[in-house]
What does this fold into?
Amino acid sequence: MSQQLLCLTSISALSGNRGKEKELSHPEGDAPPQNDKDREDSRTCALSRRAMPKEAMIRFVAGPDGALVPDIRARLPGRGVWVEATREAVSQAARRKIFSRGLKTGLSVSPSLADDVEALLLRDMLQALALANKAGAVVTGFGKVEDLLARRDGKISTAALLHASEAAQDGRRKLAQALNRGRQTLQDGHIPPPDTIPVIDWIAGEDLDLALGRIHVIHAALVAGTGSDGFMTRWRRLDRYRMADTSTPSTDVSATMASRTDGPSGEAHDDRAITGQE
It folds into this structure.
């Protein structure tokens, strides 16, 4: 009996040591996944060695010509290296030759890699906007956008407001006022309004025209729902990539948030909080 107990104690101690070794085998800051789903949904950033959701990262692979290829949809075959989806992280990874070490091969890395990734993310976002338009989730034209923003029944909500980069200040201001009127009406009817609505005002008019299949698009709005979810996800990804410091909100013109700033009359006093201009 004593020999059996000694054997069981030894096995238990050995198992405990193996568990500790497994814990220590993970890089610092990269906690072991809790289950198979966590393992599938996260990757380790080759630059920071931190585990992150795949949606917050960009995958890179070696092309057949030996050039580094950004795989923004994570679909290309072969070994991949994951880096946090920010311009700063991509630039640092290129400077520190992280890609060559991770892919274990000599690579030709474009000096404009960070710009190339941003261009791909922009194209991906515009393609998602085209799909949202086909799904009937995009409203264009000043009058129609104004009507959507000022709706009073709360049955249809706005996911985002879009202005072409060349849109006039007067049109932006009037739509901001319509948005605030709609919010006030919802509150009067005891319907909770959305806290914030993104105002995206940096897309060139010609890009909006191409994505929406229309001519001279200046103002547009996305209807909240499954039809616009793909665009919103890609816009957030691009906006985060452009941010210099991801721990603080963006302060450039890449995106602003429409929020309520009421005075005694219920009108918004500071249009800059809504349009992000001046």
Notes: Residues 2-24 form the longest helix (23 residues). Residues 87 and 114 are 6 Å apart (CA to CA). The two ends are 84 Å apart (CA to CA).
